[in-house]
Design a protein that fits this description.
Blueprint: H1 6-26, H2 31-35, H3 51-68, H4 85-105, H5 129-153
Helix pairs in contact: 1-4, 1-5, 3-4, 3-5
Length: 162
């Protein structure tokens, strides 16, 4: 097996880090903290007002990463709704495995290539692939921090940090 291109390898390391952070953020989460929202409907936070909703957004971000990579694996993404922490964890693992495979298979010559025409109707469609993919990676990590903050607010802090 050949060594992945340095950009592919770096993105895979970021994905590994996010997997660890996700596991730590959700470890020993109580069912009450999973579904609880810190305020009434319409409170700040939009759709990410509970850990359950943030989890749904994390799955959406994985699908968005696949779309930005132009991967056909996007068709295999799980549904975003998760009624339980176990269901969310399973779906996130599947979605992350798809992103991993897409990164491993991505053409290294495409990371910095400036598109000659927009790739799709989505955001940042005129940017090189690497710049497009970095944004949802950052958003994913920020949402993991929000899970940890909500856990502290709910009296169910995560034990491990990274």
């Amino acid at each position: 097996m050949t060594t992945p291109h340095p950009i592919n390898q770096t993105l895979l390391h970021l994905l590994d880090n996010q997997q660890d952070r996700t596991r730590f953020a959700l470890e020993d989460l109580t069912p009450e903290a999973f579904t609880r929202a810190p305020g009434p409907p319409g409170s700040p936070g939009g759709d990410c007002h509970s850990i359950q909703q943030i989890g749904k957004h994390l799955i959406v971000l994985r699908g968005f990463q696949l779309m930005l990579l132009g991967s056909q694996l996007a068709k295999d993404m799980p549904e975003t709704a998760a009624a339980s922490l176990e269901e969310l964890t399973t779906k996130l693992e599947k979605a992350t495995a798809l992103v991993r495979r897409a990164i491993e298979e991505h053409d290294p010559d495409d990371w910095h290539a400036q598109p000659t025409e927009p790739r799709d109707d989505g955001p940042w469609n005129d940017l090189p692939t690497l710049l497009r993919v970095i944004r949802p990676i950052n958003d994913f990590t920020n949402h993991l921090g929000a899970i940890r903050a909500l856990r502290r607010i709910f009296g169910n802090p995560a034990e491990q940090t990274q």
